[in-house]
Automatic annotation (TrEMBL):
Keywords of this entry: Signal
GO BP: peptidoglycan catabolic process
Protein name: Lytic murein transglycosylase
Domain Peptidoglycan binding-like as annotated: residue spans: 337-393
Signal peptide: 1-20
Gene Ontology terms for molecular function: peptidoglycan lytic transglycosylase activity
SUPFAM superfamilies named among the record's database cross-references: Lysozyme-like, PGBD-like
One Pfam assignment: SLT_2
Residues covered by the Transglycosylase SLT domain: 29-318
Keyword Amino-acid biosynthesis found: no
Length: 393
């Protein structure tokens, strides 16, 4: 998991290793595969095992096409969340919570991860196991490693898959999954499976495609490994005062819950959590749209996926599965189309702001740049780009 795929999410990865410049990529595909075999041998794999494992690998143009086709992430939070969160998905999630109640109880006892979190990822990644992807996983990993956009992410996954193959848990010919190489019901990459795979059903195997208990427990182990704080919350809807300092919103600013309360932040339902916790205020569509307080565990979601809109939707859906009401959508100012967003990003870049790329997507770089230019222009600095802002620039 961790790169935007399949049923919306092949997940972005945090892989230890060399940077992009130092990882070989590109060139003739056959030569690249030969280099992979040589590297496998240097890592200690038997030459014949490495050769057999890579013997049938091929470049998959459909993988590259999928990697460059992620338009759904241009949708703003309200639109995106309403597409992904349906009553049928809520009902199905609650049904699965009951069906695997004992598994979730054990996850909560062992890792302190609330069941709504795993249910949300399970729903968004594969519709509770129904849509796991049919790309050949080895082809996908080698294709993405050969492509020079992110070889440092995908190349280590090839050797993790080879290690899984050695222990009988990966067949290069028949193992399938999402376009970016994730496998199973919660979409885990080979390296994550190798490090965090759990046999939760007691059959002696880690089978993430067919065993929901294995998939859920493995996903929980990975979240814990990524830094999930045992028993703590992750997200809660809030109401903000009209005179709030909008520049202080966003994950770049943290204060204690008690400090936010002194600034007038209130829970829309119930009470805010422990006043000593560090938290951020998140307003995905500006000061007139929904508002949330994001606790430390919210940041762990970004280790699963880098898209702010996806992460916020998954985190919010997790709260809905545990009884939170539908958020107050408010009346946010109209946003920008993809082409308008590109025009805005170009104008911001011309003014010296680092938007992170002219791609039409409201990512972290663009949000930060919008916030700064709003303050420069004397506008409410809520990081929400509007047609009015584009016209002013």
């Amino acid at each position: 998991m961790r790169y935007l795929t399949c049923a919306f999410a092949a997940m972005t990865m945090m892989v230890n290793g060399a940077n992009a410049q130092s990882v070989p990529c590109g060139g003739e595909f056959d030569t690249f595969v030969s280099e992979l075999r040589a590297e496998a041998e240097r890592q200690g794999f038997a030459p014949q095992v490495a050769a057999d494992f890579l013997s049938g690998v091929r470049q998959d143009p459909d993988v590259l096409a999928a990697d460059r086709r992620q338009g759904i992430f241009q949708d703003p939070f309200i639109t995106f969340s309403r597409k992904l969160i349906s009553q049928s998905r809520l009902d199905r999630g609650r049904e699965m919570a009951d069906r695997y109640d004992a598994v979730f109880d054990e996850i909560e006892r062992r890792y302190g991860i609330s069941r709504g979190v795993l249910l949300a990822f399970w729903a968004f990644e594969t519709d509770f196991g129904a849509v796991q992807g049919d790309y050949n996983t080895l082809n996908a990993l080698v294709t993405m490693a050969h492509d020079c956009r992110r070889p440092e992410i995908f190349r280590p996954q090839i050797f993790a898959a080879l290690a899984l193959h050695e222990r009988g848990d990966f067949d290069p010919d028949t193992t399938t999954g999402a376009w970016a190489g994730e496998i199973g019901q919660v979409q885990m990459l080979p390296k994550d499976i190798l490090e965090n795979g759990q046999d939760a059903d007691g059959d002696g195997r880690v089978t993430l495609k067919t065993s929901a208990p294995d998939a859920l427990m493995s996903g929980a182990a990975m979240l814990s490994d990524l830094g999930w704080r045992h028993g703590e919350p992750w997200l809660q809807e809030v109401v903000l005062p009209e005179d709030f300092n909008w520049y202080d919103t966003g994950v770049h600013t943290t204060k204690t819950v008690a400090e936010w309360e002194r600034l007038g932040v209130r829970a829309r339902n119930g009470r805010l959590d422990d006043g000593r916790l560090e938290a951020s205020i998140v307003i995905p569509q500006g000061r007139n749209g929904p508002a949330f307080i994001a606790y430390p565990n919210f940041k762990v979601f970004f280790e699963w996926n880098e898209s702010f809109t996806y992460v916020l939707t998954a985190a919010y859906f997790a709260t809905r599965l545990e009884g939170a009401p539908v958020y107050d959508a408010g009346d946010p100012a109209p946003g920008l189309s993809g082409e308008q967003m590109k025009a805005l990003q170009s104008k911001l870049a011309d003014r010296g702001y680092d938007v992170g790329g002219i791609d039409g997507i409201l990512g972290a770089g663009t949000r930060n740049s919008v916030r700064e230019v709003q303050r420069e222009l004397g506008l409410p600095a809520d990081a929400w780009p509007t047609p009015d802002l584009l016209n002013r620039l």
